[in-house]
TrEMBL record:
Belongs to the flagella basal body rod proteins family. Residues 3-33 form the Flagellar basal body rod protein N-terminal domain. NCBIfam families: FlgEFG_subfam (TIGR03506). It comes from Marinomonas ostreistagni. A flexible structure which links the flagellar filament to the drive apparatus in the basal body. Its main location: other. This is Flagellar hook protein FlgE.
Length: 560
């Protein structure tokens, strides 16, 4: 009897040593769960007498080798396909048609793009079609083909236009003083004879007013602003000139309006004409003067006003920038957008260029037309918020609301339309700037993949696009202790564990995904080394029992 008891102890100690040794051997195995030996004592029922309280045991047995599913430390790596579960879930694998489960997330892509383990098992998940996650559990795959280009259809330009920027020439707010050049923009002088035949020097002073291309005109005669009676030589007068392109009159900077008030919408009618400047007054000598300077004699602001728009010349616009859009073949084109301050009424004219050109050939007429209709403007309110985009601005026309878009920019499709959205653009006293976005892209090759905490598999491409390719699956069990080890750090379900509950990360009790990380073994080397000592001690003690039993038996034999 003693021999069997000692032998059972030796065998149990050997199992203890083997289990401990296996834990130590797998201390660096990703996702490994340590085991422990659960012992039970033995009693022989044949020697137990009824009501006996002094039964001697028959040794020990190994009742169970149980695995401990406590989480291991999470170690971050440089591999986007390394995954760890932060929670109680298991990755789901297809191993030759059998479903297995693992905590080891050191996955790879095989030659066909499938996500697999080191031993070739297929990782299960939900593949996406056109970015929509499917509902069927299947082998998770990364499509390696390139993605087709997408033509731009809309651009968004969120801009701030500096309210402190000057019109050209700048508005003069100070009171007129002929001795102060800062109170006027330019001058012209002529000689005029009075009623007595005496010549007098008449000087006209043009001071830029608040309205676009409009000037208030002052006059002095022999340096004096008033005649001998104290009356002004000329009534309050304003003059408006055409722009550098001669849009109204056909002649650059031609005078197209003059009057006693600044012009408003409707005051200027094509082709544009202007009354002259009339002066009248009395000199101290009693002589009088009455003269009119015809509009053809006005000095025009050729050297002061803004010249025709030229995207290569920053002097012809107030703010501009360029960015990239894509045609239907994925070719890049440079779109430029430029803003020109027009007067002091919160109005900015907008110009658009494509590949440096501000016009394109209309395929139906064969004529050159601008990408944006001439006199397209952006209007802001007094709080600096955009109120809309319009065609026409005061004083040239009554504004008409418009939706910004251009055609003719895509050489592969002459009628392709590109909408322009200015969003919540502003006019604040901050440096002009903008934020640009558009919805097109070039063709792209697969550059890499990664997982987020919800287990979504996202691909990145060389064209800076991303796409959701699928979502990894997780499983959990009513009784994880009932799982059966299957090798390669995997388990299979059993009747004790119950069937797998399969779902998606970050739902229920599955846990979340840590991308670029691995779960380390939960083996504690210090504990295992202590366990080795205990197992060795137990083995030696049981061996001593066997040795003692043998000595006693030999003594009894010798007595005979």
């Amino acid at each position: 009897m003693g021999f069997n008891t000692a032998l059972s102890g030796i065998k149990a100690s050997a199992d203890y040593l083997s289990t401990t040794g296996n834990n130590i051997a797998n201390s660096d195995t990703t996702g490994f769960k340590k085991s422990r030996v659960e012992f039970g004592d033995l009693y022989s029922s044949s020697v137990i007498g009824a009501g006996s309280n002094n039964t001697i045991g028959s040794g020990v047995s190994v009742n169970n080798i149980a695995q401990e599913f406590s989480a291991g430390n999470i170690s971050y790596t440089d591999n986007n396909l390394d995954l760890a579960v932060d929670g109680s879930g298991f990755f789901v694998l297809d191993v030759g048609g059998t479903q297995a489960y693992t905590r080891a997330g050191d996955f790879k892509l095989d030659e066909e793009g499938y996500l697999v383990t080191n031993d070739g098992a297929y990782v299960q998940g939900y593949n996406a079609v056109n970015g929509v996650i499917g509902g069927s559990l299947e082998d998770l795959v990364v499509p390696t083909e390139r993605i087709a280009p997408e033509a731009s259809t809309e651009v968004t330009i969120e801009t701030n236009l500096d309210s402190r920027a000057d019109d050209v020439p700048p508005y003069i707010a100070s009171s007129f003083d002929p001795s102060d050049p800062d109170t006027y923009t330019f001058t012209q002088t002529q000689n005029v004879a009075d009623s007595g035949g005496v010549q007098h020097a008449v000087t006209y002073y043009y001071a830029k007013s608040e309205t676009a291309n409009t000037y208030q005109v002052y006059v002095t005669v022999d340096g004096e602003q008033t005649d001998s009676t104290g009356a002004d030589w000329m009534a309050e007068t304003y003059v408006t000139f055409d722009d550098a392109d001669g849009s109204i009159s056909g002649t650059a900077f031609s005078p197209i309006y003059s009057g006693t008030t600044e012009p408003v919408s409707g005051d200027i009618v094509a082709p544009g004409s202007s009354a002259g400047f009339s002066i009248a007054g009395t000199f101290a000598s009693g002589a009088t003067v009455a003269d009119t300077l015809a509009s053809t004699g006005f000095t025009t602001p050729d050297n002061f006003a803004r010249q025709s728009f030229d995207p290569t010349d920053p002097e012809t616009y107030t703010y501009g920038n360029t960015n990239t859009v894509y045609d239907s073949l994925g070719e890049t084109h440079t779109i430029g957008y430029y803003f020109i301050k027009q007067g002091e009424d919160n109005v900015w004219e907008m110009k658009v260029t494509v590949d440096g050109e501000s016009t394109y050939t209309d395929p139906t007429t064969g004529t050159e037309v601008p990408y944006l209709t001439e006199d397209t403007v952006v209007q802001f309110d007094n709080q600096g918020n955009i109120t809309g985009t319009y065609i026409g601005y005061s004083p040239y026309a009554v504004s008409s609301p418009t939706q910004l878009s251009i055609t003719g920019w895509d050489p592969t499709d002459a009628f392709a339309e590109l909408e322009i959205d200015l969003g919540s653009s502003t006019q604040y006293a901050l440096s002009s700037s903008d934020t640009f976005s558009q919805d097109g892209y070039a063709a792209g090759e697969l550059q890499g993949v990664s997982f987020d905490e919800d287990g979504f598999l996202t691909a990145t491409y060389t064209n800076q696009q991303t796409a959701v390719l699928g979502q990894i699956a997780l499983a959990n069990f009513d009784n994880v202790d009932g799982l059966t080890p299957a090798g390669d750090t995997a388990w299979v379900a059993s009747s004790d564990s119950g069937a797998a509950n399969v779902g998606k990360p970050n739902t229920g009790t599955f846990g979340s995904i840590q991308g670029g990380a691995l779960e380390e073994s939960n083996v504690d080397i210090t504990e295992e080394l202590v366990a080795l000592i205990e197992a060795q001690r137990n083995y030696q003690a049981n061996s001593k029992t066997l040795e003692t039993e043998n000595t006693v038996t030999q003594t009894i034999i010798n007595l005979g």
